[in-house]
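Hello,

Our lab assistant flagged a job as stuck in the queue for most of the afternoon. It eventually completed. Since we weren't sure the result was trustworthy after the delay, we are filing this so someone can double-check. Below is the sequence as submitted and the structure that was eventually returned. Let us know if re-running is recommended.
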Amino acid sequence: MIDFIRADHIHICVPQERLEEAKAFYTGVLGLQLIDRPNHLFSSAGYWLNIGNIQLHIGVEPFLGRSIRHTAFEVADIAAARTHLQKNNIEIVPEPAIPGRTRFAFIDPFGNRMELLQIIN
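-- returned structure --
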C-alpha cells in the first residue's frame, strides 16, 4: 500500500507557440502566482505556478485535440468562479450532478479541461 500525503503538482501541456499566452492566461485571468522553475533541468520550456496548496506546471507538446482528461480544483465560491470565467470568454462545460457538490468544467484556451467544484454541506 502507498501512503499518499497530498497532490504536489499537476502538469498540463500547450503548443510551444502558445506558451507565453498560457502564462498570461494562468497568471492574468486565473490569478495564479508564477514561481521559480529550475529551467536548466529540462529540455523544453515551461512555467510553474502556485494554485492553492499545490503547483500547476505548464509544459509544451503538440496540440492533440480535446480529451476527457482533467484536473479538479475545489473552490470557495463556484458561482463567482463561473461568473469570472464567463466574463473572460472562457468555455464552460456542464458536468453531471454529484450529490454534495456543485461543479462545472472549463476549457482553457489551449484545450485543457479543468473542473471546479464546491462542496455543499
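-- support follow-up --
The delay was a queue issue, not a problem with the job. The result is valid. Residues 1-64 form a domain with the 2,3-Dihydroxybiphenyl 1,2-Dioxygenase; domain 1 fold (CATH 3.10.180.10). The mean pLDDT is 91.
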